[in-house]
């Protein structure tokens, strides 16, 4: 594991659950993916061997998997969830960049 790239989180809090984010400089070679959400272990692992733009987009993608995983009734297939997350993540990233989150904060 390597330290988080500058400005990226080392963990998330999602509905009072703690989700560590670990960074690895070679995940793609081991798992054939840029990031993985390990729902049983409640952690996210990210490869750092990609552009910052791809890293941010992938981290948001994995965050959505984590958000989905903590819901009590999650009876869709992995393929359906992947399609949902793949569809939602780019739109959410664009939305957050265009509008910020100031209005969500207390
Ligand atoms: Zn995914």
Which key phrases capture this entry?
4 strands, 42% helix, single chain, 106 residues, binds zinc ion, Arc Repressor Mutant, subunit A, 4-stranded mixed sheet, alpha+beta
Please outline the major beta sheet.
4 strands, mixed
Percentage of residues in DSSP E strands: 15-25%
Whole-number count of domains: 1
- Measured as a percent range, the helix fraction is 40-55%
Q: Mean pLDDT, rounded to whole units?
A: 92
Describe the structure.
With 106 residues, this protein is an alpha+beta fold. It has one domain: Orthogonal Bundle (Arc Repressor Mutant, subunit A). It is 42% helix and 20% strand. The protein contains three helices and four strands. Strands 1-2-4-3 form a four-stranded mixed beta sheet, covered by helices on one side. Helix 2 packs across helix 3. The longest helix is centred in the C-terminal third of the chain and has 22 residues. The protein is globular, with a radius of gyration of 14 Å. The protein binds zinc ion (ZN). Zinc ion binds next to helix 2 and helix 3. The site of zinc ion has 4 residues, from helix 2 and helix 3.
In short:
The protein is of the alpha+beta class and 106 residues long.
What is the strand and helix layout of this fold?
Elements: E1 11-14, E2 17-24, H1 27-31, E3 35-38, E4 43-47, H2 52-69, H3 78-99
Parallel strand pairs: 2-4
Antiparallel strand pairs: 1-2, 3-4
Helix pairs in contact: 2-3
Bound molecules: zinc ion (ZN).
């Amino acid at each position: 594991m390597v330290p988080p790239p500058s400005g990226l989180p080392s963990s998330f809090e999602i509905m009072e659950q703690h989700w560590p984010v670990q960074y690895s400089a070679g995940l793609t070679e081991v798992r054939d993916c840029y990031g993985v959400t390990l729902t049983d272990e409640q952690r996210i692992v990210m490869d750092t061997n990609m552009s910052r733009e791809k890293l941010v987009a992938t981290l948001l993608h994995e965050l959505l998997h984590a958000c989905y995983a903590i819901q009590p009734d999650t009876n869709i297939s992995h393929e359906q969830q992947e399609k949902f997350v793949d569809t939602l993540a780019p739109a959410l990233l664009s939305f957050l960049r265009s509008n910020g989150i100031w209005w969500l904060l207390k």
